Amino acid sequence: MNADASTKRPGGRSARVRAAVHGAAVALVGERGADQVTLPAVAERAGVNSSTLYRRWGTLAALLADVARHRGDASAPPLVGDLRADLENQAVWTLAELSRPGGIAFFRAEVAPDVDERHDGLRECLHGVSERFRPVLDTARERGDAPPPPSLERVLDRIVAPLYFRVVFSIPGTDEAYVRALVAGLIGEAPLER
Amino acid sequence: MNADASTKRPGGRSARVRAAVHGAAVALVGERGADQVTLPAVAERAGVNSSTLYRRWGTLAALLADVARHRGDASAPPLVGDLRADLENQAVWTLAELSRPGGIAFFRAEVAPDVDERHDGLRECLHGVSERFRPVLDTARERGDAPPPPSLERVLDRIVAPLYFRVVFSIPGTDEAYVRALVAGLIGEAPLER
DNA sequence: GCGCTAAAGCGGTGATCTCTGCTTTAGTGC
DNA sequence: GCACTAAAGCAGAGATCACCGCTTTAGCGC
């Protein structure tokens, strides 16, 4: 569970192993699905001894959760200062992240861990999503936008939830245009009725 | 894979075994979580030999998908002929079904099966949800309701998706009142702003 | 360079799972 | 009732996984 890159010895080897393992995990989950992946399999693909994985991560769920956490760090789009644009950007990025090979698999992994840790994984995942949208709404409110921005809860219901739902069920037509329609439906001047 | 109750010999014993296995699966998933359940464990709880499970279902995912399919058959609420009431009833029932112990676990099981069958499981699950709401909209349309009912896609986005999302992330306050607010937000005369 | 030590590698062990050939039980049609 | 056979039970083999003591490697501070 402690898998901070910055714990004790972040130098060469640990970091290399970490990177190799993360890469192998992403690859395997992408091509087999999270259910068909085991720690030994990841270890072999990464060219690393499996005992290392058991020591550093303990369980597959913990490893996948770790991967998910550090996935797409520092790639989130910046705020531009316009509510509609920012909502669209964050939503499009969220959609893209979910749609990446194994995207939902990692989402599921974070949701899935053993019953004890399940709640933590869930909270963390939801927190991550929320924190991507909260600044958007906060700055809009501080800016004093004409119609005050919707609540975070509403954004989750009207934008994030449909995205997750549609990606999980791979409903066709879930693209950028659809995201824009969702945003438009939420903050008014809905152009196209879907 | 083929697990129709009505294949070759639906008589006494097969049906009993089937029921025992389904019950054991529900119990175990409910108390341990789907990840901690194995076919031998289900077999033992059901008082059935594990080879039977391997022969009839093959994999845990297939078993759970089978259970999910036959879960809550014939318990869905009837149509009363009023769009709002019917939407609310179906949505409340869906929420209740998802919230049952292991509810999301079974949802996930249907979503999860090995990559080959994943698409089938997904399609079937989505189809099941859709078919609960489609009649509601169809009858409303045939009835010639004043504002025509929303599209099925819209119902999925605005009602079903938030429910799934909130149950998966166990967001508090996801109850009957919330469902009514969702419906109200969709078909107009939204009473309470959330 | 040189020790120090965190972390990775190696090998092995017990437990569990998955699957299969054969036997036995018990519905179903006559 | 009685034969027929689908389906369940039994037992065991092979594979894999989870885990752990010990050894070896290689960053890091001096």
TrEMBL record, chains A, B:
UniProt DNA-binding residue ranges: 38-57
Any one Pfam family match given in the protein's UniProt record, by short name: TetR_C_11
The HTH tetR-type domain, residue ranges: 15-75
Keywords assigned: DNA-binding, Transcription, Transcription regulation
GO molecular function, one term: transcription cis-regulatory region binding
Gene3D superfamilies, per database record: Homeodomain-like, Tetracycline Repressor, domain 2
Protein name according to UniProt: TetR/AcrR family transcriptional regulator
Taxonomic lineage of the native organism: Bacteria, Bacillati, Actinomycetota, Actinomycetes, Kitasatosporales
